[in-house]
Write a structure and sequence with these properties.
Chain lengths: 148, 404
């Protein structure tokens, strides 16, 4: 009883201080020139960018898969929607090494525990360069909910 | 003293010993550790490789906590089999609570080294926590201080691991000792007991100094090759999770609830004779063993995650091929394509004269700051440890009569 009263301020602070989840950065990240991307081929790319998080600012490295066709560009986050492991490209499409989810090249679940298809990221093209809006989504849920 | 009583006593003393060692070595470690996403790993590496005694402290901390998980389990199982649970209800309940708190410490301490294993293990475990119906995401977000790993995550885990849970454990331990006070006083006043304890602590230190706590490469959230796996005592749960992928809440919610509920209910169970208790304990151990073995068999073909020094050596080979080979050549002869085209004065690493006239310190400075007009500086792109590993790699590959 006494302990719960004493620890109340700490718990209250921990509950409200969640800037990691609430402050969503919507800056577009440069992913290189469009011409450098091969047509009709999957490519693994590393996004490097600075992000501000509370008092600290640090470099983030995030992995994405890019596919460029004549009309369209598809970008998938490499984070598995099931338990946030990193997916790998294989012959069928994509596979997760942790719990063996597999996906088609369109990101649709073929088998395994993943509750939703791969997370597609927003893209835009400006001056011949590809920009990606990098977001992270809640893992293990049916809906895509942005968490950071 | 019957064999059951004997095992219970020994495991209880071992648990106390391990707990004491874990807390004391933890105090030592916290003197040079920084709970931060960016500084957590360098601080751990400093403790492990450069500080005096940090290596031993980490070993003590790591092995005493593993030992605690084991001896605590032995204590609870034999306490249960012996049927003391109904007689000493308070001791049993406090013992179970204490064990759960110790599990909590193991969970929160796991992430602190911030190496690959720490990062990925904790990340996957938090994702499993998120699958607990209705409260899972709230708990995970509370622990992390947000939806993803962020600057508050390590301070929070560190606080829980190093102060909140320790305080709770000490309180619980105090109440536990109070509940069986006469037994403890009897032991502590026994000369033979004290000598045995002292000898076992010394033995433990001697044994531990030959082992080191594992440390892998720094956490890399973009490493696609990494295969996260839990500690040995949680492998069974990991394996179990594979069978209930269609309903992850069975693994994260129902199973722990049933297990903990059973443990708390034990003192009040009726018709729970010795034979039945024995059967339950044995079948649980068998289940544990089978699932653990299955998990190991399933994993026999996966890539083994390299430890820190092996990983650095591997990286050094890659760095040589990426940064050095154009001038120094694949054989270290100084005959790389760039060196040939521009006629650069590149040393021959296979020549005895080179090694006679160059020491390690000179090489470190040459790689870090560059040399002459043509050798670029790599101090910005390589860390000190990477440079050191690179130089070992060059020595190992090219130095004539190299001895390990």
């Amino acid at each position: 009883m006494i302990i719960s009263f004493i620890s109340a301020p700490a718990i209250y602070f921990w509950r409200i201080d969640r800037s990691g989840s609430t402050e969503i950065d919507d800056r577009w990240i440069d992913a290189g020139r469009i011409e450098d991307l091969p047509i009709d081929q999957w490519r693994k790319e590393m996004l490097l960018f600075q992000r501000q998080d509370r008092w600290s600012s640090f470099e983030r490295k995030e992995l994405i898969y890019i596919y460029r066709s004549e009309q369209d560009i598809i970008v998938f986050s490499a984070i598995c929607p099931h338990a946030a492991c990193l997916i790998r490209k294989n012959d069928e499409g994509f596979g997760c090494p942790c719990h063996k989810s597999s996906f088609t090249s369109d990101g649709i679940v073929l088998s395994g525990p993943s509750p939703r298809s791969l997370d597609r990221l927003d893209t835009k093209v400006e001056d011949g360069r590809l920009y990606v809006k990098y977001e992270k989504f809640r893992s293990g849920t049916n809906v895509k909910k942005v968490i950071g | 003293m019957g064999p059951l009583r004997w095992i219970i006593t020994v495991s209880a003393i071992a648990s106390l010993l391990f707990l004491g060692l874990a807390i004391l070595s933890g105090w030592g470690l916290s003197g040079a550790y920084v709970p931060s996403l960016t500084d957590g790993f360098p601080a751990t590496l400093y403790l492990e490789k450069y500080s005096s005694g940090g290596h031993l402290l980490r070993s003590i901390h790591y092995y005493s906590s593993s030992g605690l998980v084991f001896s605590g389990f032995v204590f609870l199982s034999f306490f249960y089999i012996s049927g003391f649970t109904a007689k000493y209800r308070k001791t049993w309940i406090l013992g179970v609570v204490l064990y759960l708190l110790i599990m909590g410490s193991a969970f929160t301490g796991y992430v602190l080294p911030m190496d690959q294993n720490a990062y990925w293990g904790t990340k996957v475990r938090l994702s499993i926590t998120e699958t607990v119906p209705s409260v899972g995401t709230a708990i995970a977000d509370f622990l992390r201080g947000g939806g993803t790993f962020n600057s508050a995550t390590l301070p929070r885990f560190f606080t829980l691991h190093g102060s909140v849970l320790v305080a709770a454990i000490c309180l619980c331990l105090f109440l536990l000792i109070q509940s069986r006070k006469s037994v403890f006083i009897q032991f502590l006043s026994d000369q033979r007991f004290n000598i045995t304890l002292l000898v076992s602590i010394i033995l433990f230190f001697v044994l531990i100094s030959n082992f080191s706590a594992p440390l892998e490469l720094p956490a890399d959230p973009a490493d696609i090759e990494y295969n996260p796996r839990p500690e040995w005592y949680f492998l069974w749960l990991f394996q179990f999770g594979k069978y209930v992928e269609w309903a992850p809440w069975i693994q994260s919610g129902v199973l722990p609830l049933l297990g903990v509920g059973f443990l708390f209910a034990v003192p009040w169970l009726r018709n729970h004779g010795q034979k039945r208790r024995f059967a339950i304990a044995v079948s649980w151990c068998l289940t544990w063993l089978i699932l653990t073995v299955l998990a190991i068999i399933d994993d026999k073909d996966i890539r083994h995650n390299p430890n820190y020094s092996d990983g650095m050596a591997l990286g050094a080979g890659k760095n040589f091929n990426r940064l050095c080979i154009d001038c120094h050549g694949p054989g270290g002869l100084g005959d790389g394509p760039e060196a040939k085209v521009f006629d650069l004065p590149t040393p021959d690493f296979t020549a005895r004269e080179f090694w006679n006239n160059t020491d390690e310190q000179q090489m470190i400075i040459a790689v870090r700051d560059g040399k002459g007009n043509d050798m670029p500086d790599f101090g910005g792109s390589l860390t000190y440890d990477q440079i050191l590993a690179l130089i070992y790699h060059i020595e190992k590959s090219f130095k004539p009569n190299y001895e390990e």
